[in-house]
Every structure is written in C-alpha cells, then in structure tokens.
Amino acid sequence: MCKNTCTLTKRSRPHESAPDLSPTVKKNLQPYTKSPIGHFTAKSTSPEKILDKHKRIDAQKTLVAQVGLENFIRSIVNPLDLQLPDRVKFNMNGQGRLQSWDDVYLAEQVYTRCLGISKRIYQTHAFTHEPDKKLAYFILEEHNERSLSFLPGFDFYVLVFTYYDDQKNVTRVDVQYDQMSFFLHCLGLAQLHAWFLESVITPLVLVWARTYHASGLVNPFTFLLQLMIVPLALVYWLLWA
Fold first, then answer.
1. Which is it for strands 154-164 and 135-146: parallel, antiparallel or unpaired?
2. Distance between CA atoms of 172 and 178, rounded to whole angstroms?
3. What CA–CA distance (Å, rounded) separates 88 from 172?
4. What distance in Å separates the CA atoms of residue 92 and residue 42, rounded to the nearest whole number?
5. pLDDT averaged per 10 residues, the chain (length 241)
6. How does DSSP assign 159-188, residue by residue?
7. Which of 12, 179, 184, 222 is the most buried (most CB within 10 A)?
8. Which whole-number Å values give the CA distances from 40 to 31, 34, 66, 126, in the listed order?
9. How far apart are CA 232 and CA 227, in angstroms?
10. pTM of the full structure
C-alpha cells in the first residue's frame, strides 16, 4: 500500500463512443425513493437526455489509497481542488447525521474499535464528476484488519456522494452501504448468512413465487394480504395449535 497519495488522472472514453441510442424510443423509469442519499429522483428519461448527460459528466481514473479515514478524505478532494471547511453535513447511510469533520473522524475511531477493527485501509480507483450538480461520487473500498484473532478480516464497498458549493467547499457527504451485510462481516457471519439464504430461503421463495404467479392474482393488494395473514397464522399455530 502506498503511504502517500497516488493520483493518476486519465480522461474516460471519448464522448463519441457513446452508444447509438434511437431518439424515437422513450422509456419511463420508476422514481427512486426520495431519500437524502443521492439525487436519483428523475421520473422519466429519454436517449437524448442520457446522451446529453453523458457529455457533461467527467469520469476520471484516480487512485487514492490511505490508512485511516482522515488521511483518505484529505487526499480524495485533491483531484477536484475541493476544500474541507470545519462544518459539513455528513449523512451516515440515513442512520445518523454529523455536523463537523471532527465528529466524523471521532465516530470512525470509536466504532472501529468497538467492532474489533484494528486497521482500515481506504481506497478508490475512479470517480464520476457532475459539474452541473456540483457533485462527485465514487465507490470506496475498505480493507479491514481485526484486533481479535478469531474475527476474520474483510473487504467492504461503500458508495459516497460528495457535494460542494461555488467556492468548491465540500458542504455535504452522503454515504450509502448495506448496513446488515457490514455487521454480518464484523461478526464473521457473512458466509453463514449467505449459505442460509441460498440453500434454505431461496428455494422456499421460488416455490412461493411459482405458486403465486400460477394463481393469476399477483398484485400489490394480494401481496400485502399475504404479509398480514402469514404472520398471524404462524402466531396462532405456535400459541394455540
């Protein structure tokens, strides 16, 4: 691992290499959930909009690898010449909001020790920059080494959205990741959980899906009805059967 920031910048493919999408075809997209993570709330799009957005997006290949969150954050802003003021709105996966970088660094130091993580190496290999939105986002890779010998080390992936203002000060950071998967990895149960879902739960769900589809009654109302009836039936069977 490189101790200092390694930054390699390379422009993405030329815009002329974009796929030739037919301008006559339109596709309505389902809106994403309105949440503090990202700006993916467009209700419709078209090939023209996609091509126009592609021309205005800057995807750069940039390597940053650092030990510790503070070192990583201070390095990742360099390619876009962003500044880090003391105050920031840091949204941790919709589960908590921190208001300053000192709080962010403190939280990371405390919870990594509580979870038995002795060393964490952060890295990213590329980011996508949308100047019109003053937004840059990237996939953060975490390599976690453990403080207890019986807990396995693991790698994890996080999606990070970074917003900035006209003065290029970072104003908001939204972090998105699979929280349950993260804690299963911390407990060393991720592989057992994956086996149980694949070997036990998935076959049962497929049997239910085939039966449900064959009934011809697939719609939101019958699905919600099942969600209410099945738990009540199980409770009745366990308590009074």
1. antiparallel
2. 20
3. 6
4. 23
5. 43 43 44 43 68 76 87 90 93 89 92 90 92 92 90 91 94 92 90 93 94 92 89 82 63
6. EEEEEE-TT-BEEEEEEE--HHHHHHHHHT
7. 184
8. 8, 8, 30, 20
9. 9
10. 0.68
